[in-house]
């Protein structure tokens, strides 16, 4: 079962604000994000906690980094059955938001990420363990000390090796 982000009301309010600013209807955002209209309505109303999957699903269509939907402090953690991500730092400068996360992926588990906002770039540095990174069909195997950078505005996934992996994930998104 997927674990949820624990600050549903504040995340829902941010989603509603961003959706409204962009002139999107509830139905339009739900459709492009691939989630149910009822689910989105409950999130925005603070009656449901969003899963990490849902946050990723709406961040891309809203054109914002994941950090825009999370608690606004370093140390905030989001998790599901495959991935745990702890926000280490977020900064916005020169028209770009840079997010830095310490990520852990469980052994043999896969975290699929939909395309991030247009123009987003990501870099993963593996600290321990092994990772299988699939970026829009291109597979890269990474071990300790190895890294890969890619355009993150395409679907991608991380799979933990036999012992899982821990890494630093840096995401740069134009604002």
UniProtKB/TrEMBL annotation:
Pfam family, one: HTH_3
Residues in HTH cro/C1-type domain copies: 15-69
Keyword Manganese: no
Keyword vocabulary terms for this entry: DNA-binding
PANTHER family referenced in this protein's UniProt entry, alphabetically: HTH-TYPE TRANSCRIPTIONAL REGULATOR, METHYLPHOSPHONATE SYNTHASE
Name of the protein described by the UniProt record: XRE family transcriptional regulator
Source organism phylogeny: Bacteria, Bacillati, Actinomycetota, Actinomycetes, Propionibacteriales
């Amino acid at each position: 079962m997927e674990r949820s982000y624990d600050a549903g009301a504040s995340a829902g309010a941010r989603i509603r604000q961003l959706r409204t600013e962009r002139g999107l209807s509830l139905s339009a955002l739900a459709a492009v994000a691939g989630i149910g209209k009822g689910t989105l309505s409950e999130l925005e109303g603070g009656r449901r906690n969003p899963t990490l999957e849902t946050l990723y699903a709406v961040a891309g269509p809203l054109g914002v980094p994941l950090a825009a939907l999370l608690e606004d402090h370093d140390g905030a953690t989001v998790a599901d059955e495959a991935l745990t991500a702890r926000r280490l730092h977020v900064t916005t400068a020169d028209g770009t938001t840079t997010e830095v996360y310490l990520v852990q992926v469980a052994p043999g588990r896969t975290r699929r990420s939909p395309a991030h906002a247009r123009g987003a770039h990501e870099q993963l540095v593996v600290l321990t363990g092994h990772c299988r990174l699939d970026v829009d069909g291109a597979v890269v195997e990474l071990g300790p000390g190895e890294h890969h950078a890619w355009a993150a505005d395409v679907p991608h996934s991380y799979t933990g090796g036999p012992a899982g992996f821990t890494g630093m994930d840096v995401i740069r998104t134009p604002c």
